[in-house]
Amino acid sequence: MSNFFEKSDLSRKEAENIISDTLQKCDDGELYLENSKSETILLDDNKIKNSSYNSDLGFGFRAISGEVVAYSHSNEISKDSLKQSSENLKSTLKSVKGSYNHEIPKSNKKYYDNINPIDQKSLNEKIDILNDVNNYLRSKDGNVKQVTANFLGEQKSIEIIRSGGETLSDVRPLIRFNVSVMLEKDGRKETGVYGVGGRQSYDSYLKDDNWKSVCDEALRIATVNLESKPAPAGEMKVVLGPGWPAILIHEAVGHGLEGDFNRKKTSAFHNLMGQRVASEGVTIVDDGTIDNRRGSLTIDDEGTPTEKTVLIENGILKNFMQDRLNARLMNTRSTGSGRRENYRHIVLPRMRNTMMQSGNQTQDEMIRSVDKGIFAVSFGGGQVDITSGKFVFNCTEAYEIVNGKIGSPIKGATLIGDGPSILKEVSMVGNDMMMDPGIGTCGKAGQGVPVGVAQPSILINKMTVGGTKL
Amino acid sequence: MVKEQEFLEKKASYCLGLAKKLGATGSSVVVKNSVSETVNFRNKKLDESNRSDDLGISITTYIGKKKSSISSSNLLNDNLNVLIEKCVETTKNTPEDEFNSLPDRDLLAKKVKDLDLYDDTHIENDQKISYLKKLEDAASHDKKIVNTESSFTQNKSNFVLANTEGFCDGYKTSSFTASSVTVAKDEKSMERDYEYSSKCFLKDLDDADELGKLAADQTIRKLSPQKIGSEKIAIIFDKRIATGILRTFASAISSSAISRGTSFLKDTVNQKIFSDKINVFDKPDMLKGLGSRNFDSEGVKTDTLKLVDQGILKHYLIDTYNGKKLNLKSNGRCGGTSNLYFENGKIDFEDLLNLNSKSLYITETIGHGSNIVTGDYSVGATGFLVENGEFKYPINEITIAGNFKDMFQNITLANDLEFKYATNSPTMLIEGMVVAGK
Q1: Are the C-beta atoms of residues B215 and B182 closer than 8 Å to each other?
Q2: B153 and B105: one domain?
Q3: Cα B343 from Cα B277, distance rounded (Å)
Q4: Taking CA atoms, what residue in A is nearest to B371?
Q5: Domain limits for position B213
Q6: Inter-CA distances, B179 with B46, B197, B198, Å
Q7: H or E segment at B77?
C-alpha cells in the first residue's frame, strides 16, 4: 500500500483537518489519492517497438452541495496544493447545509490479491514470450504479414479520506495480453485480434503455454475473415454467440441504466422503472464481486463496497446503477458503481461486469429457427446515443444464416438497434452463459474504465445489419 | 498559473544530464504543464466546477540502437532519479532496433515563429457563469427543449521538448472552449444534439446566444425521426462529420501504417486516390490555428504539405523511426497532422443539395466502423432525407457503408470551408454508398 504522506510536507492529520474544514458545510465529498504504476511492452513488425513505464501520483478533492460538484486535482501532494484546491472548492460552493449522512457499509471481502503484476515477471521473460508469439504465428501460417503483441500491466493504489477522517483504501492489479495478426492472400488483407486479462498476475493467464491459444484464436479469426463476403444490408434475425457479444447488452441497455442519465431524465429508460423492458426470461445483473475479473472492484472509487446489482429481472426493470451523488438525489442507495478513470476525473456511475443470465435453449435451436439472418460471434467496439436509445456495434467475426444453417463468413458490418426495444425482441436465451476473456474498456465522458461482460447465446428477432449487399 | 519556461527547461536538462551520467548515449524529454478551469451548467444552474493542474514528464533513453521510455506526473528529483535509472536499465535489456534514433540534426526546427497561439487573458468563473447563463437562456427558448448541459473551459499549457542533439524549445498555448448539449422531446421521441466553439483567443469565441440557439435548433429538427429502406443513395456529410473522413485518410497515410503494411493506401504515392478536383493541405503555421505548431513532437521542422494534388497522393505523414524504415526523410509529422483540410470545392452548399433528386444528409455517425487495413467503412448514422434540394424529414437507426477506396473517388466538395477544428472539410457529397435501414 502507498503511504501518500511519506514524502510530503503535509501530514495525514493536517490533510484530515483541511478535508473536514472544506467539507463541513457540504452534502458530500472526499479526498481521493492515487498512485499508479503501469507498463507497456509491445512487439510489432518483428521487433520490440516499445518498452515503457509510467508512474502517476495525484489527488482529486471533491465537494458536493445539492446537485453542484466542485472538483480540483493536482499532481503535487503538498500543503500548498491541497490548500489551493480547498480554496477553489470553497469559492464555488456557498452552501450552509450540514453533511450528508450516507454511511458506507463495511465489508471485509476482497476480490483480488494485493500484488504488483509488473514485478512478478521480469522484462526479459516478457520479451521472450512476445518473440515466441511472433515466431509461432509466422511459422504457423505463410500468409501472416504482420504480428502485434503486447503486455499491459498496472498496479493502482487508492485511498479515500472523508470528512471526519474515515479512510478507505484498495490496491488493484490489472493485466492484459493482446495479440493481433494480419494475413494477406491474393492481395486481400484481414486482421484477427484476441486477448486475455484480469486482476491477477501475468502467469495466471499465460501458464502452460496458454499464450499459444490466444495466438490460435487471433489467427483463426483472421483466417475466417480472409474468406468473408460482403455483408447483407437491411433488417433481419440475428443470433449472438456467448461471451464477448454481450457488449451489445452493455451498449444497448447498460449505459441507459446508469443513475446520472436517469436523474437528469436524458436516458430513454428514465420513466420505465418497474416496467417490462425485455422479454420474459431475460435477467441482467451488473456484478462487481466476481473474483479477479477485469470489471470487479473490492470498493468503488467512493469507498462503497461493490455488489451484484439486479438491473432487469425476468424482463422487468428493477434498478439503476448508482454512485453516491445520484443515489442521494434520487432517494436511493449507492450500488457501489461510482467509478473514475483516475484522480484527474470526477466520479460517475459506471458498469462493472454486466451479465445476462442463462436460459434454457441451445445455440443450435436458435440457428435452426432462422431462415435468413446472421450469426455474430465476435465484436469490436460499440457506441450508444443514450437519449435516442440507438446503439451500434461492429462485427469482427460473423456468418450468414441460410435456411437454418451457418453459411459463409461476412465482412465486418455495423449492427444498429434501439436500446429500449431490442431486449423485447429477444426470443430465445441460451443455456451457455460465458464471461468475456477480460479485454473490455468502457468510455464515458472521456473516461475509460475496465469492464467485463457475459451472456449466453441469444436470438434477436429483428436488427438492422449495415452491410453493402442489397 | 501555468509553469514558466525556465522551470520546465531546468527539469528537462536535469533529466538529459542524469540519463547521460547513467549511460544513455542519447535521450529526449518532454516536460508539460497544463492548467484548466471548467464550469458546467445544467438547466440554467451551476452543476460543476473543475480545476485541474497537470504536470507530466516523459523521457526516452537510447543506448546505441536500444530504446526505452518512462513517464510520470511526479516531478520531484527523488522520483525522477529512480525512474531514469529504471529507464536506462530497461533500455540495456531491450533488444536493438536498427531504425531507432533521435531525429537528424539538420531536420530539427531552427527558429521558432510566433504563431499567436497564446492569449494571456484570464476569464474568472463568474464571467464563465454569465456566458453560460446567456447561452442556456438562448438554448431553452423553445418548450421542446427539456434538458440543457453546457460547459466553458479555459486551458493554458506550456511545454518544453529537449534532446541530446541540442534541441530545446517550447511555447505556451491557450484555448477557450464553450459547448452546449441539448435534449428535445416530443410525443414520439427524445433527441440530443450539440454545438461548440473552441478558440485560442477568448475574444474570438462564438457569441453565447448564437451557440445556444444553434444547439437547440439542431436538436429540435431531429425530433420524430423515421427509418428508411435499404438502398444505394448519395450521402452528404455535414462538415462536422466530413472531418472524420479526412482524419481516417490521415491515419491511412501515416508512415507507421504504411511501413507496417496495414493501410489500404500502402504504395499509393503518386497515384490518383481521390477524384480529380480534390486537394488536401496540412498547414502547420496558420496564425491562431487549433492544430498549429512550430515543430513536431520530435522537434523536427514542419513545412506546409500539399498531401493531395488534383486527386494524386503526394506525401505520407513521416516521423523519424518509420521514415528510416521506409528510407524517407521525416517531414515533421510525428504526432500526426497539424491544420489538415480539404481545399474548397467549386459549388455552393445549395447546389450540392440539388445535385441528386434524393440524397441523405448525415449530421452524426456512431460506432468505430472505419477499417484502415481494408478500407471498409460501416457506421450508424442520423440525419435528414433531402429531396430536390429540400430537407424533408429526420432519419435515424440506419447505417451507411462503403469502402474508402471507392468513396474517395466519388467525393464532391462544396465551397463552404471554415476553420472550426484542427481538421476541417467543406460539406462533402459521396455517391454510391449503401444505406441499410428497414
Answers
A1: yes
A2: yes
A3: 9
A4: A412
A5: 5-220
A6: 14, 6, 8
A7: helix B77-93
The answer to whether residues B339 and B377 belong to one domain is yes
This prediction's pTM: 0.92
**Nearest-CA distance A355 → chain B (Å):** 22
Q: From B183, B202, B220, give the residue that closes a domain.
A: B220
Chain B hits for A346, CB-CB cut-off 8 Å, are 48, 50
The domain defined by A123-159+170-226 folds into PmbA/TldD fold (3.30.2290)
Distant-in-sequence, close-in-space partners of B371: CB < 8 Å, separation ≥ 6: A412, B377
Interface test with A, best of B366, B370, B379, B430 (most A CBs within 10 A): B366
The CATH number of the domain holding residue B199 is 3.30.2290.10
Q: Do both B39 and B181 map to the same domain?
A: yes
Residues of B in contact with A417 (CB under 8 A): 397
pLDDT in tens, B395-433: 999 999 999 999 999 999 999 999 999 999 999 999 999
- Among B436, B425, B361, B424, CA closest to B391: B361
Residue of B29, B39, B45, B49 to mutate, testing the A interface (most A Cβ within 10 Å of its Cβ): B49
In chain B, the N- to C-terminal Cα span, in Å, equals 55
CB contact under 8 Å between A465 and B436, yes or no, is yes
Least CB-CB distance to A123: which of B93, B147, B368? B93
d(CA B242, CA B418): 12
**Confidence band (pLDDT; 50, 70, 90) for A98?**
low
Same domain, B206 and B135: yes
Q: Which residues of A touch B265 (CB under 8 A)?
A: none
DSSP codes of every residue in B114-162: -----------HHHHHHHHHHHHHHHT-STTEEEEEEEEEEEEEEEEEE
Contact across the interface for B380 and A92, Cβ inside 8 Å: no
Q: Of B203, B220, B237, which one is at a domain's C-terminal end?
A: B220
Same-domain status, B203 and B315: no
Chain A residue with CA closest to B263: the answer is: A189
Residue B217: CB atoms within 10 A of its CB come to 17
Average the pLDDT over each of A415-429, A446-460, B194-208 and give the range with the smallest value: A415-429
From the list B74, B261, B368, which residue is nearest A55 (CB)?
Answer: B74
Among A220-224, A336-340, B73-77, B269-273, which is the least confidently predicted range? B73-77
What's the gap in Å between the CA of A38 and the closest CA on chain B? 10
Number of structural domains found in chain B = 2
Q: Kindly provide the ipTM of the predicted complex, given to two decimals.
A: 0.88
Nearest-Cα residue of chain B relative to residue A58? B73
Query: Given this model, what pLDDT does residue A95 score?
Result: 55
Q: For residues A427 and A442, what is the distance between their CA atoms, to the nearest angstrom?
A: 27
Vertex A215 angle, CA A213 and A219, to 5°: 115
Q: What is the pLDDT of residue A24?
A: 86
